[in-house]
Amino acid sequence: MALPSIQLSDVRRDEPSPAEQQRPAQPGVNKIVVYEQADFEGLSREFTSDVPDLHELDFGDCISSLQVVGQPWIAYTAPKYEGDAYALEEGEYRTVEKNKAFSALRLVHHDLADPQITLYEEPDYAGQSKVVTEETNLTYGYFNDRVSSHVVQRGVWLLYKHPARGGWYHIAWPGERLPDYKPQLGFHNCLSHLRPLAPGRPAVTARILWGQRKVEDERDVLIDEIVGVNATDLEQTFTTCSSREYVTTTLQSFRFSNATSLRAGLSFTLAVEAANVFTVEKGRSESTTRRDRVEVLLPAKIPPCTQLTIHVVSKEATISVPVELTISQNERSKTELGEYRCVSGRTISTKYTMKPAPPPGGEQAPAPAPSTLGH
């Protein structure tokens, strides 16, 4: 749960321009849904772009729970992005610490993928410096309570007064240059913990490039042999069943490129065919085994004095296919390639072979050439 940030007017920030305030977020990716009661009850509103004054939309000072989808939002206790500020990352908030107090909402449009901030020991960016690119507890090192100025290169950062995300925090925006904590924030030599805001989960769509399919291996595997002998002078029924059922196995896997930008836990689906939708989860579920039932028809009769042998053969094939991933995040899209691999034995065929059987009475008939029928 977010902690308050006292936002002072004399700290330079990258405030949203009028064009930014009117720019809508990509539908279905960045939004916030706010509710007047806890646990997502009561009246609600959904926003996809900045709201400088919730009172103008008849929803000021009434928010008690909310849901964030995509990029983070900053909620303010006064209109026009003034007052205390609360950072809200993607997720569900059944209650909010500052209940019924939010008057403005700001969507974080900035790129949060590669954050960086430089901390300085002295005012005016002097003294020893420290470059930080990830969440850091300064009490574990030599820079705790020693920071007096900073420059934000990339990302949006939360600077905390106490370790473990404790106490008051300041929100530092991209491009922010704060030359002296003491007169501007009253924060001189107080910084103990900092972290970048996390980007929202991207939306991923996958397209299998079947035209570039490669068959890496293909072989026939004998899965069953059925033998029937008719040693009489009359045609005989081979079996009371006209078919037999077999279980086939398909092993599917997905491999990400070494340079993938997707984080562990993100999932998407691959529509391999109408009845086969493969769900991929980065770092967890990147392979699956599927079992199908295949019915094989059997001949009904065996000719007189004939031995019938049926070989049931599975054609196992290993294929690989490139997959184009379109990753949409924060109103931007990019593509990268992965690979779908499949080891399947779903194609089953039968091979019928007939040869003479000893006639009645045990006399061996002349052996004609074997007859083979494929099915």
UniProtKB/TrEMBL annotation:
Family annotation (PANTHER family): BETA/GAMMA CRYSTALLIN, BETA_GAMMA CRYSTALLIN 'GREEK KEY' DOMAIN-CONTAINING PROTEIN
Biological process according to GO: lens development in camera-type eye; visual perception
Stated name of the protein: Beta/gamma crystallin 'Greek key' domain-containing protein
CDD domains membership: PFM_EP37-like (cd20230)
A GO molecular function held by the record: structural constituent of eye lens
InterPro entries: Beta/Gamma-Crystallin, Beta/gamma_crystallin, G_crystallin-like
SUPFAM superfamilies assigned: Aerolisin/ETX pore-forming domain, gamma-Crystallin-like
Protein family per UniProt: Belongs to the beta/gamma-crystallin family.
Ranges of residues in domain Beta/gamma crystallin 'Greek key': 30-70, 71-109, 115-154
Region (Disordered): 1-28, 351-375
Record keywords, A-Z: Repeat
Pfam family, one: Crystall
